[in-house]
Structure formats: structure tokens, C-alpha cells
Write a structure and sequence with these properties.
Number of strands: 37
CATH topology of the largest domain: Aspartate Aminotransferase, domain 2
EC number: 2.8.1.9
Oligomer: single chain
Distance between the termini: 53 Å
Number of helices: 21
Cofactor: pyridoxal 5'-phosphate
Strand order of the largest sheet: 21-25-31-30-29
Protein name: Molybdenum cofactor sulfurase
Strand content: 15-25%
Largest sheet: 5 strands, mixed
Pathway: Cofactor biosynthesis; molybdopterin biosynthesis
CATH superfamily of the largest domain: Type I PLP-dependent aspartate aminotransferase-like (Major domain)
Function: Sulfurates the molybdenum cofactor. Sulfation of molybdenum is essential for xanthine dehydrogenase (XDH) and aldehyde oxidase (ADO) enzymes in which molybdenum cofactor is liganded by 1 oxygen and 1 sulfur atom in active form.
Shape: globular
Radius of gyration: 31 Å
CATH architecture of the largest domain: 3-Layer(aba) Sandwich
Length: about 775
């Protein structure tokens, strides 16, 4: 297949080398040359507030006006036809339209206005109805198939009505990439096409945010009344800047009540007198615009033209990649003939005028059941592939393509599912899907990498007919317990008992906390029973269940520290996940972003009260176990899996050590002991509330447990897909469990509600 592709220098996108970025519909990526041009500009010029009259301010004002011209030029129009109003983004532009459109409310002598929108619209469009409702204006959702049938003209006497109505639709669906006809603009404005049969004059809002990221828009031909855009969708930088292009024929009709700095020609503070500025842009741009970001746009246009040759070439390039990927993806089959994916599309990807570079799908198993999008996202992350999942702020399209009813949406909310979370299946039915999208910097290799990922993770060698790649994660090496000092005679003494029947009465403390907590942090220990000659205490059925391994992970995402017995603290195993590595912005680093974290080997020396950290090629370094909170440590807030924790920095010495080993600026922080993180578990299997449980820097639970028998079954299941077989010990380590057990049956632990280890009791 011959592909018409652009040749983009990868050196311009150093930040994504080694990454397959397939979320261009979410945000474009900025090239190095854009940043260099912008920063050089800032070094060579002084830009002042454009509302002042000095030399630097005049330069800013003139540059902003030049950028307005560049935007109009980009969309093939002029200042005679359109005005550019800068906003914080497309959403702010839509809100501005809803607030300023000349609506006629219900209950007046004139016929009232209507706000109509295509159901395949972004949340920010649908949200406009909240404003129109407050103005007593009715909103009417229109399904795509309905607008195609609405072709009858109004009677002549009704065509003379001047009541303004607004119809909004996307030039390109951000869900499926479907491009809706731009001819609708003129058809609706002329009365040839009526969204609903009602007397009045129709105006058109064209949501172009998704469309203009990869397609040319000619406003000289398709003269919509309002066109909101976000510039990061086109250039990747700057973010937080958008614009509303307003047709000058409707601009004088727009209403505005609030007036901010720079919008008034004159006003009185002591009396109700205000006279707006003549310029529509100045009248609606409240306060000082984000002038440095606007100046960055000039460099965005320059670089985009230089790298690509224009939007038409971007359109052809991105569509060629989408067409190729769609063709291969839609033809992938299991051995039984069942499709590997279900693609949600209104087109067959044969024409770039009706289909954008977006592919929306769900992965299926051999029986046609949907695999949850969170599972697909997690697997993609392990392959360094960046996709988007969920409903993409487009519930209407999600419902239409996935067959989700209005009642389903409400039931899913009651079940705990909200927009943007990772609850991907409810009662076996998907709540969302997976989306990939291409940009001008996307390559054929990106498409191949994604397709190979799907093939390698879903098809066996015989199914695919090509060598399948094993899905691997960096190995975590064990750490010798050189620093431990325990009585070896006790190591094999205590056995594990599992209660898998009804939940028994447990101590009142567990009732209030949802987890067992000792009176003293080091009052109890978990002791591993790994001897074949030891006589276990048996549960019902007579087969023993024993502990095989105990691991703790002092530094989150770093290597495991294996022990034979260990004290239990009030947050789990003592010192388990008490520290974490953060980047220069204070954001937690994991092996997904930095695989070399698995080569950092921490071990705890309880006798000398230190944590020793080792890595190949580095001298060992130690960190005190003593909490430094009281030594004028600066307490800061960090985030771990959506919940906030209080932490403090462990100092320059260890920060330098980690930065040297990992080759990037980072720091080691520790959870502060005076403020405890609380659990945010979604499901406690009917047990008492777990919201008061104290957590370390774990994702959601104090302890993690796996069963060797379950791992063995997994090993058998995946062995056919791997180039080289995985040892059982390798697989066990990849799950990063605290407690590894030997139970007779695989996955029987999934049904347990309580576990007791000696005198300790745990809820699942």
C-alpha cells in the first residue's frame, strides 16, 4: 500500500523518542523549533501590557494584531468578514456565545428562540443549555440522522420571522472522526435545511476544535457565524489559549453585561454609566489577554507551515495513516473467525473529506465479549503506547455507537461510574471505548507499533501468522536480607489460616477501621512458613494454605525487599511504600515512565535504623528511618492515585544520587507521619466502610496478596504467546505483592472475605 506521508525530522520531537503517541485528538505535540523560536523572541524583545502606551506595550499590541491577521489568513478569510476574540480555550468561547447570543426567551410577545445541537457534540457544547435554560430558552438535541431528513422549507409567511435561533454541530466528531458536511452551514442559514420546524432566522455555530487540528477550514466558502477553536489542538503549545471567530454580520447583535479591564470606552464608578469600546474584540476580551501566549502563536504558524507545507498536506498525511491502520485493524481475526476489535465508525475510511484521522474501537475476546478499555490502556502503557479511553467528553456519540441508553447512564452513575474514571465494564457491558488519533508528526512506524501491539497481545503465533512479541515489564530483583537480625528458630513456626466462609465477628477495632491495626507499630509479625516438613493448621477440606514469600517495597515503584518475617505497622508492613521518587515538578514517578526504577534496590536495617539503597555502578547510600517531620522539614502535598498525601523531602544527597542513576532530575520524598492518607476503596464486598483506613503511598490497599496457583494458571495461559518462557518467580515478582501464598486452587482467593495469619485478621 503506497502511503502519501510527510517527512518530519524526528529531532524536532525529541520528547517522544521511544514513545508511540496516539492521542493527537486530545492534544497536538509541539516541535522543538517552535519553543526555540518563541524563547528567542522573548530574549530579544520586551513585551509590555498591551493596555499601556509605552514602547514595549505598543510592540505587544501590534504583534497581537499581526497574530489576529495570521489566524484569519490561516482560515482563508479577512477582517472584513470575521473578528477574532481571544479566550482561554474552545470551552470559554462556547460559554461566551451562550451568554451573549441575542436569545428571545419564552413568555414574550415575540416567538421564542431555540438552541439546537447535534447529539454527537462535545460536553462543552451540550453544557451551553445550562445557560440558555437560565434565560428561559428551550434547548433541543438533534440526532445526526434527524438533520439529514430535515429538508423541507418553512411556509413563506414564516420565513419572514426574525427570531434568532442557534444550531451547533461539530465539523468533526471528536469521538469517531466523522466529518459532518460543511454545506450544512449555508443550507441552514438559507432555510433550505431546518433543524426543527419553527419560524425564525437560524445562525450556525461550527465547533471546529477537533477538525482544524488536521484539516483546512475555508471560512471564505463556509461562512459559519461562530467558530470556536483551541490552539493547542493545532500546535501543542501554548495551552490555555483559544479564540472565537465571529462573523461580523452577527457581531453587533451580541449582548454583554459584565465589563472588565480594557473593554470600556468610558464608565462612571459612582453612577450606572458605561460605554463599550467600538471594537468587538476589545469589547469581549475582559482584562489583559494572555499576550505572551498569543505571541507564541505566530511561531506556531511559522513552524507548522515550514514543517508540513500546510493543512491540506497534514490532512492527507494523517488520513493515510488512519486508513492504513483501520484497514489492518478491521481485518484482524481470531482462529475461530471472530473479529479482534469492534470499530465505531460511520464511514469506511475511504475519503478524507468525510473521515478524520481518528479510530474508535473496543477490543474483543474470542467469544465476542468486550475487554475493558482500562485493561487495554494499561497494556498499551506497558508498550509505551499512549491512547485515550472513556467517552471522550462526548456522551451522545458514546451512547449512539455503544448502544447505551439514557437509563443505562443513570444506572452506571448509581453503580459508581463517573466520566473519566476507569470503570470500563458494568454487568459485562462497556461504559466507553479506546481512541487512537494521528497528527502531522505521526509516522508509519507509529501505526505499525500499535498494530503489532494488538496482534502480540491478542493473537497467538498460529492466529497471527507473524512472530508475536512477549508482553514484558522490567524485572524486579530481590534484595538479600543482610541487614536483618531475627531469631532463625522462629522463622518457620507460624502458619496461615484462611476463613472463606461467612464474615465472622471480629474485634471492635477492626469494625471501626476496616483493617486490623496493632496497639504498637512493631507489636506483631507475619512469619513465613516455607518448610515442607512443618505441620500446618488446616482449614475446612484439610488442605493447608501457607505463606510462600513476604515482600515489602520501601520505595514505591522500586525493587522488592524480601523478608522471612516482618513487623506490622498501622499502615501495613512496617516501612512498606513509605517513600517515593518524584520528578522535578513533584509528580510521582513509576516504572511506566522510568523503567530503571526497578534497578533501585532498597533494604531496611531495623537494627541500625536506616534504609540502604543500592544500584549497579553506584555506591550504596543510606537514609535514616527516623521521621524527620519535626526537624523543620518542609511538608508538601503529593498525589497518589487521585488521593492526596502529606510528604517531606529527604534532602539533596539522595536526590543527587537518584538523579545521577536515573539520568534525570528527581527527588526522594517520604510520607509525613503526622498526616495519614485515607483509603478510597470502591468495593469492600459488603464489609463495613473502609474510608478511615490509614494508607502509606500505596494505590488503594494496605496489603497486596497473590496465590502461586493462580500465577501458575496464568503462566500456562500466556506461555504460547511468549518468545521465551517466563519462570514462575519472574511472574510472581511482577505483581509486586506483599504476601505470596500457596493455596490448593487457583483464584480461590478472589472469593475470600477474611484472612487470618496467626493472631492477625484481615478483611479482603
Amino acid at each position: 500500500m503506497a502511503l502519501n506521508l510527510l517527512k518530519i525530522e524526528t529531532s524536532n520531537f525529541i520528547c517522544i523518542l521511544g514513545i508511540t503517541y496516539l492521542d493527537h485528538a486530545g492534544s497536538a505535540l509541539f516541535p522543538e523549533s517552535l519553543l526555540k523560536g518563541f524563547t528567542d523572541d522573548l530574549r530579544n524583545n520586551v513585551y509590555g501590557n498591551p493596555h499601556s502606551q509605552n514602547i514595549s506595550s505598543k510592540l505587544t499590541y501590534d504583534t497581537i494584531e499581526h497574530v489576529r491577521y495570521r489566524i484569519l489568513q490561516h482560515f482563508h478569510t479577512t477582517a472584513e468578514d470575521y473578528t477574532i476574540i481571544f479566550t482561554s480555550g474552545c470551552t470559554a468561547a462556547l460559554k461566551l456565545i451562550a451568554e451573549s447570543f441575542p436569545w428571545i426567551p419564552e413568555g414574550t410577545k415575540q416567538p421564542s428562540s431555540r438552541f439546537c445541537y447535534l447529539t454527537d457534540s462535545h460536553t462543552s457544547v451540550v453544557g451551553m443549555r445550562g445557560i440558555t435554560a437560565s434565560m428561559n430558552v428551550l434547548s433541543v438535541p438533534i440526532e445526526p440522522k434527524e438533520i439529514l431528513l430535515a429538508k423541507s422549507r418553512l411556509p413563506a409567511e414564516e420565513q419572514n420571522c426574525t427570531t434568532p435561533h442557534l444550531f451547533s454541530y461539530p465539523a468533526q466528531s471528536n469521538f469517531s472522526g466523522t466529518k459532518y458536511p460543511l454545506s450544512w452551514i449555508q443550507d441552514i442559514k438559507s432555510g433550505k435545511l431546518c433543524p426543527i420546524k419553527i419560524p425564525g432566522k437560524w445562525f450556525v455555530l461550527l465547533d471546529a476544535a477537533s477538525y482544524v487540528s488536521s484539516s483546512p477550514l475555508d471560512l471564505g466558502v463556509h461562512q459559519a457565524d461562530f467558530i470556536p477553536i483551541s490552539f493547542y489542538k493545532i500546535f501543542g503549545f501554548p495551552t490555555g489559549l483559544g479564540a472565537l471567530l465571529v462573523n461580523n454580520r452577527i457581531a453587533p447583535l451580541l449582548r454583554k453585561t459584565y465589563f472588565g479591564g480594557g473593554t470600556a470606552a468610558a464608565y462612571l464608578a459612582g453612577e450606572d454609566f458605561y460605554f463599550p469600546r467600538k471594537s468587538i474584540a476589545e469589547r469581549f476580551e475582559d482584562g489583559t489577554v494572555s499576550f505572551l501566549d498569543i505571541i507564541a502563536l505566530k511561531h506556531g504558524f511559522d513552524v507548522l507551515e515550514k514543517l508540513t507545507g500546510g493543512m491540506e498536506k497534514i490532512k492527507q498525511h494523517t488520513f493515510a495513516l488512519a486508513h492504513y491502520t483501520y484497514t489492518v485493524l478491521s481485518n484482524l481475526k481470531y482462529a475461530n473467525g471472530a473479529p479482534v476489535v469492534r470499530i465505531y465508525s460511520d464511514t469506511d475510511f475511504s475519503n478524507p473529506d468525510v473521515q478524520g484521522p481518528i479510530i474508535n474501537f473496543n477490543v474483543l475476546d474470542e467469544n465476542g465479549e468486550v475487554l475493558g478499555f482500562s485493561q487495554v490502556d494499561s497494556m498499551a502503557s506497558l508498550h509505551n503506547i499512549h491512547v485515550r479511553t472513556g467517552c471522550f467528553c462526548n456522551t451522545g456519540a458514546c451512547q449512539m455507537h455503544l448502544g447505551i441508553s439514557n437509563e443505562d447512564i443513570q444506572k452506571n452513575l448509581q453503580a459508581g461510574h463517573v466520566c473519566g474514571d476507569n470503570i470500563d465494564l458494568i454487568d459485562g457491558r462497556p461504559t466507553g471505548s479506546v481512541r487512537i488519533s494521528f497528527g502531522y508528526m505521526s509516522t508509519f512506524e507509529d501505526a505499525q507499533t500499535f498494530l503489532n501491539f494488538i496482534i502480540a497481545t491478542r493473537l497467538s503465533k498460529s492466529d497471527a501468522g507473524i512472530p508475536c512479541q512477549s508482553v514484558t515489564e522490567p524485572m524486579t530483583e530481590s534484595v538479600p536480607d543482610d541487614h536483618l537480625s531475627f531469631n532463625s528458630a522462629d522463622k518457620l513456626s507460624q502458619m496461615l489460616q484462611i476463613s472463606d466462609g461467612e464474615l465472622r465477628n471480629i474485634p471492635s477495632e477492626a469494625d471501626t477501621t476496616g483493617r486490623w491495626q496493632p496497639l504498637e507499630p512493631e507489636a506483631e509479625s507475619i512469619r513465613a512458613a516455607v518448610s515442607e516438613t512443618a505441620v500446618p493448621t488446616c482449614r475446612k477440606g484439610g488442605k493447608p494454605i501457607t505463606i510462600a514469600r513476604i515482600y515489602l517495597y520501601p520505595i514505591k515503584s522500586c525493587s522488592a525487599f524480601e523478608v522471612t518475617e516482618w513487623p506490622v505497622g498501622n499502615q501495613g508492613l512496617l516501612y512498606d511504600r513509605n517513600w517515593m521518587v518524584v520528578n522535578q515538578n513533584g509528580v510521582c514517578m513509576t516504572q511506566k515512565q522510568e523503567p530503571r526504577l526497578c534497578l533501585v534496590n532498597p533494604s531496611i536495617d531495623l537494627k541500625h535504623k536506616i534504609m540502604v539503597i543500592q544500584a549497579e555502578g553506584m555506591d550504596p547510600i543510606s537514609v535514616p528511618l527516623e521521621d524527620n517531620t519535626g526537624k523543620k522539614a518542609v511538608i508538601c502535598e503529593s498525589k497518589v492515585c487521585s488521593h492526596r498525601v502529606k510528604t517531606y523531602d529527604c534532602g539533596e544527597r539522595i536526590a543527587g544520587w537518584l538523579s545521577t542513576f536515573l539520568g534525570r532530575p528527581c527527588r526522594l520524598i517520604r510520607q509525613s507521619s503526622d498526616v495519614e492518607s485515607k483509603s478510597h476503596q470502591k468495593n469492600t464486598k459488603g464489609l463495613s466502610s473502609a474510608t478511615n483506613i490509614s494508607l502509606s503511598l500505596v494505590n488503594e490497599a494496605q496489603y497486596l496478596l497473590i496465590n502461586v496457583a493462580s500465577i501458575m494458571q496464568l503462566k500456562e495461559h500466556i506461555s504460547a504467546r511468549l518468545k521465551e518462557p517466563l519462570e514462575i518467580e519472574e511472574l510472581i515478582r511482577r505483581f509486586r505483592a506483599n504476601i505470596v501464598i500457596n493455596a490448593p486452587e487457583s483464584f480461590e482467593e478472589e472469593e475470600w472475605v477474611e484472612i487470618s495469619i496467626g493472631a492477625l485478621q484481615f478483611q479482603v
